[in-house]
Amino acid sequence: NLSPRLKVVAGLVPKGSKVADIGSDHAYLAINLVKRGIAIGGVAGEVAKGPLTNSRNEIIKNAVDTKIDARLGDGLAVIDDADDIDVICIAGMGGLLIRRILDEGLERLKGVTRLVLQPNVGEYELREWLINHNFKITDEEIVAEDFHLYEIIVAEPGQMKLSEQQLIFGPILMNKNNQVYQNKWKKELLRLEKVQKNLESHPRHGEEKLRKTKLQIKRIEEMFD
Ligand code: SAM
């Protein structure tokens, strides 16, 4: 059974796809997709040997070893043209790491029709990379798990321009404006207001930081307006 976060990721993979799950850890995502008949097969990539062994064990235990190949390697280096991957999932890492993996694997993204990305942080930088590399954001979700609110970004080949506000909050999440999204930004607003108070009572800690914090607060308030 998948965690709420991975369940949402899995729900964004189209039926009939060949999937690469990069940073698969136990390969729960790929196994779930194949067992439910969503993915016809794929690759589970891992850079670390421990998680790779876990993936292999789980794949065998679930009798999907003819459909999912667990491979050791950095990022997209584990896939090649012969794999015919349609969808790449990268979940549970920082946005900067996901961005580096995509950037270094640019050549391998050519036949790919969809990216399903779940950055733990660094959503802004990831969106920025996507729109600067001929991807458009076609869907976004936000999900609560273990006291953290995770954003999931779906991107497909295409053109898109995003405003600063859309890069921060997510063009689709902003429109959906659901309860989980509102909770995330209300929580962030409270955190920033505390930071502001602290900085104001210790002015030596930096005018620049205070200026930035005030700007972040203003942006969230404007978004809620
Ligand atoms: N994707 C799973 C999830 O969302 O639950 C596992 C997330 S786990 C926190 C991150 C995994 O990514 C770790 O198993 C780690 O070894 C792997 N990883 C980190 N950097 C990687 C890279 N450059 N290429 C492939 N895997 C990587």
From TrEMBL:
Keywords: Methyltransferase, Transferase
UniProt GO MF annotations: tRNA (adenine(22)-N1)-methyltransferase activity
GO BP of this protein: methylation
Organismal lineage: Bacteria, Bacillati, Bacillota, Bacilli, Lactobacillales
Pfam families noted in UniProt: TrmK
Protein name: Sam-dependent methyltransferase
InterPro entries: SAM-dependent_MTases_sf, TrmK
